[in-house]
Design brief:
The structure is a homodimer. By secondary structure, chain A is mostly helical. Chain A folds into two domains: about 150 residues, no CATH class; about 325 residues, Neurolysin, domain 3, CATH 1.10.1370. At the A-B interface, helix 1 and helix 2 of A face helix 1 and helix 2 of B.
C-alpha cells in the first residue's frame, strides 16, 4: 500500500505541476501579457490543461486509486493519505467522464473568450463577446451531459465548484433567504437618505491607494514574501503553491474604499491559500476546499471584519493619515457611508444587503440558460429586465449589466451561488469564533489579527481540500449550514444603521 | 508524405507549447515572482521541460523524421517543410542522446541556481552560489558526455548554441582577433584622457528613462503591442511566439546611457523574434537561428547603429529634450563619451573594443573548467587573475567579477563565444547592407528604420531557425564569416575618436 501511495503521489505531482504552470499563464494573461500574445496563449493553456487532464484520468491513476480505496478503513479519515485517496477518487470519477478533446476545447475557448470579453466590456459591445459565450455554453452543455443522469443539467456545473450541492438544495436555501432579504432591502430603501456616502468621494492617488491596501492586507496576515498585488480588469486570487499566492485589484481614482475593500476580499482568499498544510504540496489538495468555503474566507475579511466598527477603530486614523480628505470626516459618518446599502448595478461593488439579490439573479439566469429557457443572444435584455424586477434598476450599458463579470468568459458557470453560500457561512463562522475567542472584538480594535488567522488556519485553512462544505460546517460549528445567523447579522447591523 | 508531415507538426506543436509555457514561467521568475515561489517554480519548470524533451525524443517523432528525411530531395531546401524536417532531425538526433532524468535535473538546478546566483550577487558572496554551480558543471559534464566521441568535451556545449561550431574553429577565429584587439586596446590606453565620459553622469528619473527607451525601441521597429519591457537583474529577451516577445532592462539612476543601450540591445533580439515567418508557428523553428546570429542582430542595433553619429544626429536632440542635463553638452563630446573605450569590469557595460577580451576570457575559462584544469571553487581567483592579465584590472568584489553574469546559473555554458561571433557578423552585415542600400546612412540620420528592418527581415528574420550561421553568412554576403571587417571597423572608428 505504501508503494502504491508513492506511485500515486508521483503521478499526481506531475498533474499538479501542469495545473500550477497553467495558473501562472492565466495570471500573466490577466496582468502583463501584451495583446499580441492571446492566440498562442490559448494554444499553450489548451496543451497544459489537456495534458493535466490526460495524466489525471490515466488508467494507472484509476487503478491505483481503486486499489488504495479498498484499504481506506485502515487509515484515519483526517490523515493526508486517506484524504488524498478519498478526494482524488472523487475527482477522478468525475474527470474520467469528460473526453480530453472537450477539456482542451473549453480551455482554448476560455483563453480566447476572456480576451473577447475584455474587449467587449471596454467597448460596451456585447456582440463582440456573444459568439464566444455561445460557444462556451454549447461546450459546457456537452460537458454537463457527460454526467447523465441528473435531475437538472445545471447540477453537474454546480457540483464542480461545490461538491455534492444541487440546484434543488441551493434553491431551497435561496428560497428561504429571498423574502427576508427583499423585505430588508425595501425597508432600507424607505430610509435611503439616512446615509450619505458621497463623503467618501475625492481624488486619491493610485500609488498611495496601492500602498495602503498592501499595508492592510499584510496586517491581516497576507504574507507578501509569498505573494504580490497587481492590477487587473477583474480582481482575482491565484496560487501556484502556498509559497506563491497572488492577488489582483482594481483602483478607482475617485474612490479609495472600493479598491481597498476589493484588496481585502482577495487577501482573504490568499490568506486561505497561504495557510494550507505544506504536507499537501503537489497532491492537488493544497488549495481551498470549495468556492463557497473560499468565499466564506474572503467575505469574512471583507465584510464581517472589514466593514465593522472595531476594524475601523484601528484603521480609520491610519486612513486619515494616508488620505487627508478623511480628516474632516468623523468616524460615525465614515462607518455609515462605508455600509451604505442601496440597489446598484455592479455585483462586486454591491453592499452586503443587496449582494444576495445579484447572486440570486445570476443563479436563476444560469439555470434558465442551461435549461434552454433563455438564449445567449437574449441575455442582455433578460439581464436588464430582471435587474429591474429584483433591484429596481436598469443598467444603462451592458458594461454595467451582463458584461460586468469575467466568469462566463472563462467557463465558470455554476460558480456564482457559492458567493452567497460563502457569505452565509462567513457569518456562522464569526458566531462560532466569538464563542471560542471571547476577546476577539478587542483584538480587532487593537489591529491584532494573528489569533483570528490561527483559529481559521487550525479549523479550515490547513486542511486544504480534505473536507467538503457540509463536513467543514459540522466540524467547526457542530451542525449544518444555517442561513438564520446571516439574516440576523444583516438585520441587526443595518437595523442599527438605518434606524429600522 | 503529406499525412506524415501533418502528424509530425501535431507532435511538434505540443512540444512548442510546453517550451513556450516554460519560457513564460522563466520570464515570471525573473521579473515578478515573489521569493516564496522558487521551490515550486523549480518543480514546474522541471516537469514542463522534462515533458517537452520526452515528447520530442519520442520514437514516433524519430520514425516520422527518418521517413520524411528519405524524401527530402523532393522538396525545395528553403521551404518550410524541408527545413522543418532537416532542422528537427538535427535537433532530434542530439536530444535523443540525453536521458530525460538529466534534462529534468538540469532544469531544476537551473531554477534553484538562478535564485542562489541572485542572492549571491546581491550579497557579494560566491560561496552561496558555489554548490549550485558545482552541481550544474557536474550535470553539464554528464550532458556533454552523452555526445562522445568528441575532440573536446567543450564541443557539445558550443554546438548547442551554434550548430556545427567547435572549440578548434572558434579558437582559430579568436586567435586571429586577439593580437590586433590587444594592440588596439593598448594604443587607446595610451590616449586614455582623449575622451571624457564623466559628462554623461547626472541624476536621471527612472520613469523618464523607461519612457525614452520604449520610444527608441519602438522607433527601431520593436512592436509593443506584441511585446513589453520590464526590469530584471540581468537584461534578457524571451518569446512565447512572434506575437509575444518581451525584453527586460536594468536602469541606473546616475547613467541614462547604460540602460538605454541595454534596451536597444534587447530590442535588437526582440525585433528578430517578432519577424520570423508566421508560417513557422508551433514548429520549433519560429525563433532565431542561433545565438551568434541573434547577437549579430542585437549588437547591430546596439553598436553598429546605436553608437554611430548618424543615429545620434536624429536622437540626440530628443535625448536633450527628455533630459535637460544634455542641453549644455555638445554633440561631439556626447558621441565621444558614448564611445569611450577603457578596460572595465562588467561585460555588459564594456565598450566595443574591450568587449572581445571579456568574451575570450570566458571562452578560455569555460574550456578549462570543463577540461578539469580549473575547479569551481577556484573560479573567483582565476577570474580575477585573468582579468588582470587581459584588461589590467582586478575586480574588487566577486559581484563585479565572476558573479556578474546569469548564464552559468542557468546552465548556459558554451554560450559566451557567440557574443563575439555575433559582433563579428554584425559588421559584415553592415558592410553588405551599405552595398545594397546606398541611402541607408541618410535614413538613419532621418530616424527612419523601416527599410533596415525590411532588409533584415527578408535576409535573416523570416527564416527563423531554417539555416545555420555559415549558411546565412553565405546567403547574405556570398562568402564565409570574416573577422577582418570587424577589426577594420573598430580600427577606423576608434582611430578617429582617439586620433591614432
Amino acid at each position: 500500500m505504501k508503494e502504491k501511495l508513492e506511485q500515486l503521489k508521483t503521478l499526481l505531482a506531475r498533474v499538479a505541476d501542469l495545473e500550477n504552470a497553467a495558473a501562472v499563464l492565466d495570471w500573466d494573461q490577466e496582468t502583463y501579457m501584451p495583446e499580441g500574445g492571446v492566440q498562442a496563449r490559448a494554444d499553450q493553456l489548451s496543451t497544459l490543461q489537456g495534458l493535466a487532464h490526460e495524466y489525471f484520468v490515466d488508467e494507472e491513476v484509476g487503478t491505483l486509486l481503486h486499489d488504495l480505496a479498498a484499504h481506506l478503513d485502515e487509515l484515519d479519515y483526517d490523515s493526508d493519505e486517506a484524504s488524498l485517496i478519498r478526494v482524488s477518487l472523487r475527482d477522478y470519477e468525475k474527470q474520467v467522464k469528460v473526453p480530453g478533446d472537450l477539456v482542451r476545447e473549453i480551455s482554448r475557448t476560455s483563453a480566447l473568450g476572456t480576451q473577447a470579453w475584455r474587449e467587449a466590456r471596454e467597448k460596451d459591445d456585447f456582440s463582440l463577446f456573444q459568439p464566444y459565450l455561445e460557444k462556451m455554453v454549447e461546450l459546457k452543455i456537452r460537458w454537463a451531459e457527460c454526467f447523465k443522469p441528473y435531475d437538472n443539467i445545471y447540477d453537474p456545473l454546480l457540483d464542480d465548484f461545490e461538491p455534492g450541492m444541487t440546484y434543488e438544495q441551493i434553491s431551497a436555501v435561496f428560497a428561504e433567504l429571498k423574502p427576508p432579504l427583499v423585505e430588508l432591502v425595501r425597508a432600507i430603501s424607505q430610509k435611503r437618505d439616512a446615509v450619505d456616502d458621497s463623503v467618501l468621494k475625492a481624488h486619491f492617488d493610485k500609488d498611495a491607494q496601492m500602498a495602503f491596501g498592501r499595508a492592510v492586507a499584510e496586517q491581516l496576515g497576507y504574507d507578501l514574501t509569498r505573494g504580490r498585488i497587481d492590477i487587473s480588469a477583474h480582481p482575482f486570487t491565484t496560487n501556484f503553491w502556498r509559497g506563491d499566492v497572488r492577488i489582483t485589484t482594481r483602483l478607482d481614482e475617485n474612490d479609495v474604499v472600493s479598491g481597498l475593500m476589493g484588496t481585502i476580499h482577495e487577501a482573504g482568499h490568499a490568506i486561505y491559500e497561504q495557510n494550507t498544510s505544506p504536507t499537501l504540496y503537489r497532491t492537488g489538495l493544497d488549495r481551498g476546499a470549495s468556492m463557497a468555503v473560499h468565499e466564506s474566507q474572503s467575505r469574512f475579511y471583507e465584510n464581517v471584519i472589514g466593514r465593522s466598527r472595531p476594524f475601523w477603530r484601528h484603521f480609520y486614523p491610519r486612513l486619515q493619515e494616508a488620505f487627508p480628505h478623511f480628516k474632516s470626516l468623523d468616524f460615525e459618518a465614515f462607518y455609515r457611508a462605508l455600509n451604505k446599502s442601496e440597489p446598484s448595478l455592479i455585483r462586486v461593488e454591491a453592499d452586503e444587503v443587496t449582494y444576495g439579490l445579484h447572486i440570486i439573479l445570476r443563479f436563476e439566469l444560469e439555470n434558465d440558460l442551461f435549461n434552454g429557457r433563455v438564449s445567449v443572444a437574449d441575455l442582455p435584455e433578460v439581464w436588464n429586465a430582471r435587474m429591474e424586477e429584483y433591484l429596481g434598476l436598469v443598467p444603462p450599458t451592458d458594461r454595467e449589466g451582463v458584461l460586468q463579470d469575467i466568469h462566463w468568459s472563462q467557463g465558470l458557470m455554476g460558480y456564482f451561488p457559492d458567493y452567497l453560500l460563502g457569505s452565509v457561512f462567513s457569518v456562522q463562522l464569526w458566531e462560532q469564533m466569538q464563542k471560542e475567542m471571547p476577546g476577539v472584538v478587542e483584538q480587532i480594535e487593537a489591529g491584532q489579527f494573528e489569533d483570528i488567522l490561527a483559529w481559521l488556519r487550525e479549523k479550515i485553512h490547513r486542511h486544504g481540500r480534505k473536507f467538503t462544505l457540509p463536513e467543514i460546517t459540522a466540524r467547526v460549528t457542530g451542525g449544518p449550514l444555517r442561513w438564520e445567523p446571516y439574516m440576523d447579522y444583516l438585520r441587526t447591523k443595518y437595523g442599527e444603521i438605518y434606524g429600522l
